[in-house]
Amino acid sequence: MVGGAVRDLYLGFTPRDYDFLVEDPKKEAEAAAQALGLDVFALREGVMRAQGRGLVLDFAPLPEGGLFADLCRRDYTVNALAMNRRGAVFGLKRGLMDLKARRLRALARENLEADPVRAFRAVRLWVTRGLRPEPRTWSWIREEARRIRFRPPPMERIAEEFRQILGHPRAAFGVQKLKESGLLAVFLPELATGAGVAQGGYHHLDVLGHEIEALFELLCRFPEAGLDLRFATLVHDVAKPLVRQWDETRGYYRFFHHDEDGAALARTLARRLGFGREDRRRIEAWVRAHMRLPPESAKGFLRWLFKYRTLLPELLMLQISDRAASRGPLSDPEEAHWLTQRLDAARRRLAQLPTRPRLDGRELMALTGRSGGPWIEQLKALLLKAEWEGKVSSYEEAKDFVKSWHEAEAAAARDPRNAGGLPPQRPHGD
Known about the structure:
The chain has 22 helices and 10 strands. By secondary structure, the protein is α/β, with parallel strands linked by helices. Among the domains are: 164 residues, Orthogonal Bundle (Hypothetical protein af1432), CATH 1.10.3210; 58 residues, no CATH class. The strands form 4 sheets. The chain has a 4-stranded mixed β-sheet. Strands 5-6 form a two-stranded antiparallel sheet. It has a two-stranded parallel ribbon with strand order 7-8. Strand 3 and strand 4 form a beta hairpin. The termini are far apart.
C-alpha cells in the first residue's frame, strides 16, 4: 500500500481510496473484488480498479526502478510512504519525520509542476489533516498558482478538492488559504475579484473578506449546513464588485441589485463546480433572496414564510450569518437575536402549516370542469396560501374557494374590457 492511504491510517483516519503496487494488478484487483463484493475494471493501461460500497482500490504494477522510484515521483513527503502486508510503514525517512510534525513538504518543485492539482491538494490536506506547508513549499504553491492561472487543470479535479475543503468544519480557513495562495483566482476568479473591494458603511471587511467571514459564521452557528448552503453563503455577494457605486451623500459605496445579479452568477459558478441541477436552483434562489429579511408584524411574517417556504430554514441561516459577518465584533447582538428568533419561529410554523393544498389537480379539474394546464399549479398555490392565512380550514371551504375562483375567472373572461386580450384579474392573487 502506498500514498495517501498510508498517511491517513498513520494519522488515525479511515481512508476510502487505496493505492497498491503489485506484481499482477489484474489478479490482485479481481481477488479484492471477489472478497469484498466490488466491481472491477481497467482504469488505464496496466492499472486496475476495484470499486463499490464506498471503497476505491487501485492496483498498479511496480514502476521501472522499483518502489523507491515510485515514492520519489510523489508530491509530498508525507505521501511518499508505503506499508507492507504486516503493517510496517517505511519509505523516505523525511516523510515519517514530517508526518509526525504535521508538516507538508514538497519532494521537489518539478513534482508539483507535473500535476497542477497537487497545489490544491496541499490546501485540502492543510484543512482536513492539519498538515501545514513549510515555507519553501508554500512559496512553490503560490508560484504554481500564478503559472496555471490561465491554463487551469480539468475543473472536475479541482472541484473534487474544493468540495472536500468546503465540506470540512474549517472550510472558511481553507477558502482563506486558497485566496492567499492565489489558487482561488484559478477556478473562481469572479469570487477572488472581491479581494480589496472596500465596502464601508455597515461593513468592516472588503467583499471577499466578508464572504469568507459569513461562511465562518454559518459553520459556527449551523455546522449541519449542507454543501449547497455553504457555497451560497460564500458567494452571496459575488456580484458586488460589478455593481459598486459611490454614494456622495452617504459617503460610502452602495451595491444596487447585487442580489439579483449575484444569483445568476452564483448559478454559473455552481455549474462550473459540478453542483446538480436542484442544488444550483437552490443556490441561485438563496442568493437572490438573501436581502429579503422577514418583517416584524405577524401577518407580514406569515406572508413572508409563504413566499419563501421552499427556501427555509436555510435562507434565514444565510441571513443570520451574513448580518453577523457584516460588522464582526461591532455587530448588534439584538439584531442577531431577533433573526434567530425568526428562525425558531419559522421552524415551528413550517412544522405546523400544510405543505400542500387540500385538493389535488384531479379534484380541481372536476370542480371547475376545465382540462389540465398551468392554471392548476397557480390555483393550488392560491389555495395553499388561503389555508396558511386561515381563510380555508376544511375540505368544504376548500371546494367553496375553488368554485368562487372559477366563477370570478369566468366572469372576468366574459368582461368586454378583456376582449382586446387583457388577462383576467385574479381575485386571490399576490
